[in-house]
Specification:
Blueprint: E1 9-22, E2 25-38, E3 42-46, H1 53-60, E4 68-73, E5 76-77, H2 83-93, E6 94-97, H3 109-119, H4 124-137, H5 153-165, E7 171-175, H6 183-200, E8 203-208, H7 211-216, E9 219-224, E10 227-231
Parallel strand pairs: 3-8, 3-9, 6-7, 7-8
Antiparallel strand pairs: 1-2, 1-4, 4-5, 9-10
Length: 232
């Protein structure tokens, strides 16, 4: 596999290996995964707990280092980046939606959404305007000043999605985004993410074992024992 920039792929993995040390034992998490994801795709990394899907998501997002192989994001090889360069990549190119929301508890919904833009150096007036717009877009108009503890689980996840989307990243990585939601809120969140994917062309990569999420995505990569078992 050649480095990015040769085709339409926004993410490429070539023979990626990741092993974790547990005491004296080395536990393989990824066993030479190779894949290519085109710009604008809505993809699920499906698999049981421990299959390696979250590890793969973390490799793509530059949150963890792989042992061997290579990952390219928008043509840039992650193995050649230092920690500062990986942080810049995440800030400028990637939005994250975590299972546990990862909202800052002392900040309001609006302030949580503004946080990434503040790191990016966006002016305060523009941050305020953009945060109100995106919170309205995810159905939270009028709740901008509420703290996370004053929001339901579904509402907190909507804030997390708004935070991921507000800076128009090239890629959104979501790790079990519906795990803490009931079926109604899960369906609403998935519908919103699918609409935003179509409207903005943002690439969505979702790690999940939820059949409802898997059915919603247009491409399914089944991860089993650290390898791609199916791609359909």
């Amino acid at each position: 596999m050649e480095a990015g920039g040769q085709d339409s792929a926004i993410v490429k993995c070539d023979a990626v290996v990741k092993t974790y040390q547990q005491g004296a034992i080395q536990v393989p998490a990824l066993r030479g995964i190779s894949l290519s994801i085109a710009r604008g795709e809505f993809v699920s990394l499906a698999g049981a707990s421990g299959s390696g899907k979250t590890t793969l998501l973390n490799m793509i997002g530059g949150l963890d280092r792989f042992g061997s192989g290579e990952v390219w994001v928008e043509g840039a090889p992650l193995s050649r980046m230092n920690n500062s360069e990986l942080a810049d990549l995440r800030l400028s190119k990637i939005g994250f939606v975590f299972q546990a929301y990862n909202l800052i508890p002392v900040l309001s919904a609006r302030e949580n959404v503004e946080f990434i833009m503040q790191l990016q150096g966006v002016a305060q007036a523009e941050r305020r305007d953009l945060s109100r717009q995106i919170l309205a877009r995810v159905g939270l108009a009028g709740m901008e000043q509420r703290l996370p503890a004053e929001l339901s689980g579904g509402q907190q996840q909507r804030v997390a999605v708004a935070r991921a989307l507000v800076s128009h990243p090239a890629i959104i990585l979501a790790d079990e985004p519906t795990a803490n939601l009931d079926s109604k809120n899960s369906l609403e969140l998935l519908t919103m993410m699918a609409e935003l994917n179509l409207e903005s062309g943002t690439t969505l990569i979702v790690a999940t074992h939820d059949p409802q999420v898997i059915d919603f995505t247009r491409r399914k990569l089944v991860i089993k024992d650290g390898t791609v078992a199916e791609d359909y």
